[in-house]
Amino acid sequence: MKILHKIFGGINLTWLKVIILAVVMGVYTGLINQVPFLLDTSFRDIAISFEWWIFFGIFIIMNSKSNLDSALKCFVFFLISQPLVYLVEVPFLGWEVMNYYRNWILWTVLTFPMGFIGYYMKKDKWWGLFILTPILLLLGDHYASFLGETIFSFPNHLLSCIFCAVTMIIYVIAIFNGKKTKIAGLIISVSLIAVFTVMTVLNPTVYDTVVMTSDAKSEVYFDESYKVYLSDESFGTLDVDVHKGETKEEDFYLLHAVFKKAGKTDVIIESPGGERSVYEIDIRRHDYDLVKK
């Protein structure tokens, strides 16, 4: 408990520390996002989603000395760190990657009023929960997204999922001292975690894609009369969709898949006469490898 209050309110956060933190996190994020074997893991989520940047924002707010100090330090932190992420990526991806920074410009501008208003959470009043609750909702949405990713391809994004849930609790405990305010905040956080968990389990993340196409010139032909299925149906479902062109010669068929989890199984295409074509498929969250057996 003392450690949390030290982190969120007990640090002499000078301008030099803010600038150093911004530079370190900008460089780190840009570099970690270029490590190939970390793709689709928690370690690269910092380059994509908000949970860690929310942490730094609240850290700055709670260690600032006034509303204006909080607003300026939040703004400068993000003004330095965000473009630096993309500048670090330029040697790897080219100057075109700087186009993505446009998505962060508005958020960077908004950090000024958010830092100013967020400072009122330090007043330790019950209405401080109204300021924190939108942040908890955003973290809850991130939690649900990461939970869905983890269920689909365990243990990918598990650390990010846990981080979101834990910080939803920590922020309430660290920011508020009043017993009633703290209890109310914990009820909100725990309720959000429970609701988002149930929603994610009932509506699991899937990978909806087209595995292959078929027309008269295809190596393997199939149409709506063929049976298509996975050898292990726990991975998902297959069906054949027809794509209609302007003429009959332009018609072709799509082998449509809805995958429920990552892993390896077989795609089986069976003709009305019983002839089968079998492919091994290695399913990942956003792509797959398909090899004929």
Strand content: 15-25%
| Class derived from helix and strand content | alpha+beta
Average of pLDDT: 92
The percent range for helix content is 40-55%
What key attributes describe this structure?
293 residues; alpha+beta; four-stranded antiparallel beta sheet; three-stranded antiparallel beta sheet; 8 helices; elongated
Give a verbal description of the structure:
This protein is an alpha+beta fold and 293 residues long. Helices cover 50% and strands 17% of the residues. It contains eight helices and seven strands. The chain has helices at residues 2-7, 15-32, 51-62, 67-93, 102-118, 128-152, 158-175, 179-202, and strands at 207-214, 227-230, 236-243, 252-259, 263-270, 276-283, 288-292. It has a four-stranded antiparallel sheet with strand order 2-5-6-7, with no helix packed on it. Strands 1-4-3 form a three-stranded antiparallel sheet, with no helix packed on it. Helix 3 (51-62) runs parallel beside helix 5. The chain is elongated and about 80 Å long. The termini are far apart. The model has no long low-confidence stretch (mean pLDDT 92).
